[in-house]
Write a structure and sequence with these properties.
The protein has two helices and four strands; from the N terminus they run βαβββα. The protein is α+β, with helices and mostly antiparallel strands. It has a single domain, classed as Double Stranded RNA Binding Domain (2-Layer Sandwich). It has a four-stranded mixed beta sheet, with helices on one face. Strand 1, helix 1 and strand 2 form a beta-alpha-beta unit. Helix 1 runs parallel beside helix 2. The longest helix is centred in the C-terminal third of the chain and has 46 residues.
Length: 125
C-alpha cells in the first residue's frame, strides 16, 4: 500500500508529518492492506494565514483494486484531528464498499452453486 501526502503552502510537509500519517493509516487500515493499492492524502488550510476555527481540511482517496476510488473529507481545528477524522471516515467507507463487494461475490458463488445443483438434478432425471 503506497501512501502519498500532499500539502498546501501553509502546512509543512516534513518527515514527522509523513511518519504520523503513515502510522495512523497503516494501523487503522491494516485489514484492507491486500485490497488497497494507494492512498492519496491532501492537507490544506482553508483560511490560510487568516486563521479560524476548524479550517484544516484533510481529503483522503483510497485506490482499491477492482473497485472505484473511495474519497472522504474531514475538516477540523488541527492537522492531527483532521487526519484522525478522515481516517475514521475512510475506514467506515472501506468497510461498507468492500463488504458489499465481498457480499456480491459470495452471493454470486452461492447462486452459481445452486444453479449447478439444479442442473445436476435435471441431468440425473
Amino acid at each position: 500500500m503506497q501512501i502519498n501526502i500532499q500539502t498546501d503552502s501553509t502546512i509543512a510537509n516534513n518527515a514527522g508529518l509523513t511518519d504520523h500519517v503513515q502510522s495512523v493509516l497503516e494501523n487503522a487500515l491494516s485489514r484492507f492492506r491486500d485490497n488497497l493499492t494507494r492512498i492519496e492524502v491532501h492537507l490544506s488550510d482553508t483560511n490560510g494565514p487568516k486563521g479560524g476555527a476548524d479550517d484544516i481540511r484533510c481529503v483522503m482517496e483510497a485506490r482499491v483494486a477492482g473497485y472505484q476510488p473511495i474519497a472522504v473529507t474531514e475538516q477540523n481545528a488541527t492537522v492531527h484531528q483532521s487526519i484522525s477524522g478522515a481516517t475514521d471516515k475512510l475506514k467506515r467507507a472501506l468497510d461498507s464498499a468492500l463488504g458489499k463487494l465481498h457480499d456480491n461475490k459470495r452471493h454470486a458463488s452461492v447462486k452459481n452453486a445452486v444453479i449447478a445443483d439444479a442442473d445436476a438434478e435435471t441431468a440425473a432425471e
